[in-house]
Amino acid sequence: MYENQTGFIRVFNGKFVDEECNEYLFFGWNGWELIEAALGSPDVLPADMSFLSDKKDLITYLLDKSVGIGMNVIRIFGHGTTARLST
């Protein structure tokens, strides 16, 4: 059933495994407010953004940091969390 699929994680014997049946451990975060951050909403942006270089936006910074520490999963939600985007 899975022999022709690559890049998919599945459950085998009660564990998450990759296409080579190696155990796959999730390490990541939930991107609840990425839509608001991408739109520049002051409701979710840090008050001091001086940690960003002049060539990065907050989203790129967060993704780069995630990759840099070895995260392999990010769940991004397709809806807003603030009143402006949730209605």
Task: Summarize it.
The chain has helices at residues 34-38, 58-68, 83-86; strands at residues 10-12, 15-17, 28-31, 73-76. It is an alpha+beta fold and 87 residues long.
Name the average pLDDT.
82
Largest sheet: 2 strands, antiparallel
Kindly state the percentage of residues in helix.
10-25%
Q: How would you spell out the order of helices and strands?
A: EEEHHEH
Give a count of the beta strands, DSSP E runs of length 2 or more: 4
Strands of the widest sheet, in order across it, are 1-2
Radius of gyration, rounded?
Answer: 17 Å
Uncertain regions: pLDDT < 50 for 5+ in a row? none
Instruction: Report the total helices.
Output: 3
How much beta, percentage-wise?
Answer: 15-25%
What general form does the structure show? elongated
Write the layout of secondary structure elements.
Blueprint: E1 10-12, E2 15-17, E3 28-31, H1 34-38, H2 58-68, E4 73-76, H3 83-86
